[in-house]
Amino acid sequence: MARHPFDQYVTAQPQPQRDTLRAVAATLASLLPGAEPCISYGMPAFKADGVAIAGFAGFARHCSYFPHSGSVIPAIADRLTAFDCDRGTLRFPIDRPLPKAVLTLLVRERIRQVNEAQPTNGKVRAFYDNGVVQYRGAMRNGTMHGAWTWFRKDGTVMRTGSFRHGDQTGIWSTYDRDGRMVKETRFT
Q1: How far is Cα 135 from Cα 144, in angstroms, rounded to an integer?
Q2: 172 vs 30: CA distance, rounded Å
Q3: Cα separation of 144 and 139, whole Å?
Q4: Is the pLDDT of residue 34 over 90?
Q5: For 129, phi and psi rounded to 5 degrees?
Q6: Is the domain of 107 the same as that of 21?
Q7: Is residue 19 domain-shared with residue 80, that is, in the same domain?
Q8: pTM (2 decimals)?
Q9: Residue 150 structural domain
Q10: Is residue 144 located within the same domain as residue 168?
Q11: Residues 107 and 129 in one domain
């Protein structure tokens, strides 16, 4: 059975980069249970609902973390002074994984920025700090329009419904954690 390209990349790294990157990947997977491992821009990354949240790579003299945004590191630079950073990269030693606290800081800032950058027209979604989708819907001229779904932090559907120009319309359903409908409301 063929291995996932994400795993192939990490396994192909020399030591000690391989173990360092495995540790970073394991920490990111624990921080982002709602995200999927993938390859993005030629490096291992985690995407939540198609949005790249965190990436990393190994090099001869350092390993790097990539937040997939040029504004994440500058926003928290005052808390990253122990690392060699620029706008889009944080470099760390080949034999020392990034601490969980640093990865948590980077991931949460990326998710915060993704959540703030919602369009006024088109599809929107927001994430909990663990990479699980919080809601998904659409906007038209800055108001909710069309089908919307809200999720719990564990990924289960909590509520579904539709808007027409910001007003609730149609049937709205609320579900328990097991997926059973517990309430249905009709809007006209």
Answers
A1: 12
A2: 33
A3: 5
A4: no
A5: -70, -5
A6: yes
A7: yes
A8: 0.91
A9: 119-187
A10: yes
A11: no
Q: Find tokens 């969980």 and name the residue.
A: 100
The per-residue pLDDT for 150 is 98
Average pLDDT over residues 27-33: 97
- In single-letter form, the type of residue at position 24 comes to V
Half-sphere exposure of 146 (CA within 13 A, CB side): 11
Q: What is the rounded average pLDDT of the residues 163-167? A: 96
DSSP for the chain, written as a single string: -PPPHHHHHHHTSPTTHHHHHHHHHHHHHHH-TT-EEEEETTEEEEEETTEEEEEEEE-SS-EEEE-SSTTHHHHHGGG-TTSEEETTEEEE-TTSPPPHHHHHHHHHHHHHHHHH---SSEEEEEE-TTS-EEEEEEEETTEE-EEEEEE-TTS-EEEEEEEETTEEEEEEEEE-TTS-EEEEEEE-
Condensed to tens digits (0 to 9), the pLDDT of residues 47-94 reads: 999 999 999 999 999 999 999 999 999 999 999 999 999 999 999 999
When divided into structural domains, the chain yields a total of: 2
pLDDT in tens, 123-153: 999 999 999 999 999 999 999 999 999 999 9
